[in-house]
Amino acid sequence: MVTEAEALPGRDEALTFHPTHVVLGTSLVGPWPEGHEVIHVAMGCFWGAERIYWQIPGVHSTAVGYMGGWTRNPTYEETCTALTGHTETVQVVYDPNAVDLEVLLGAFWENHDPTTLNRQGNDIGTQYRSAIFTSTAAQLEAALASAERYGRSLEAAGFGAVTTQICAADDAGDGIFYYAEDYHQGYLHKNPRGYCNHGFCQVGYAVSPAG
After folding, report:
1. What residues act catalytically?
2. Which domains does the chain have, with CATH numbers?
């Protein structure tokens, strides 16, 4: 993992992207509707991960970007060098009155392998590491509890230990979610035959909101 001192400097100017979600028709940027919450998840290539979340009822908006590192407003090419410290991340904005956080966490654990450190399939590097960056204390508590719960089942099924980075967003690198370039936003809607290594369940079970 690159250190802050070693990371690429990046730039002060944000990358450009269309501010409206190509599928949901909602804004990609705040302010969000009253009562909505934000959680950031990283589970390998962000194209497939975003598609999983925009299909979940109760999710208001999704966006792809870079988070957990130090480079300001990094490009995709810079992030692919593993010299930014960021991981490919999906921003999920949801209404907690319409979708339980456990549903969102279940989608996370069941659609990638959280036991492979800095890797998802052929995608290798810290930019593909598994991570959950939370925005509230309750989210952090729930994420840690779900990691323990899923970790037990994964190990019982013959997988290794969970390697997922779980922390408050403010403690993840510089704490900022940097939006990716426009062509990445809603990529698999724009390119239905595009690359995706998500959409499978590692173990074949789901966790209920009650745990």
Report:
1. 45
2. 37-190 (3.30.1060.10)
Cβ neighbours for 137, distance < 8 A, ≥ 6 positions apart? none
Is residue 84 within 8 Å of 70, Cβ to Cβ?
yes
Burial class for 78, CB neighbours closer than 10 Å (0-12, 13-18, 19+): buried
Contact yes or no for 197/121 (Cβ under 8 A) = yes
Helix pair 101-110, 137-156: axis angle to 10 deg: 40
Q: What are phi and psi of 23, to 5 degrees?
A: -105, -50
Q: Are 93 and 61 in contact (CB under 8 A)?
A: yes
Candidates 191, 121, 193, 109; CA nearest to 154 is: 109
C-beta separation of 26 from 163 below 8 A: no
75-117 per-position pLDDT tens digit: 999 999 999 999 999 999 999 999 999 999 999 999 999 999 9
Rounded CA separation 173/138 (Å): 21
Q: pLDDT per residue over 17-66, tens digit each? A: 999 999 999 999 999 999 999 999 999 999 999 999 999 999 999 999 99
Chain-centre distance for alpha carbon 43: 6
* Model pTM score: 0.93
Measure the CA–CA gap between 45 and 166, rounded to whole angstroms.
18
210 has pLDDT over 80: no
- Rounded to whole angstroms, the Cα distance separating 20 from 26 reads 6
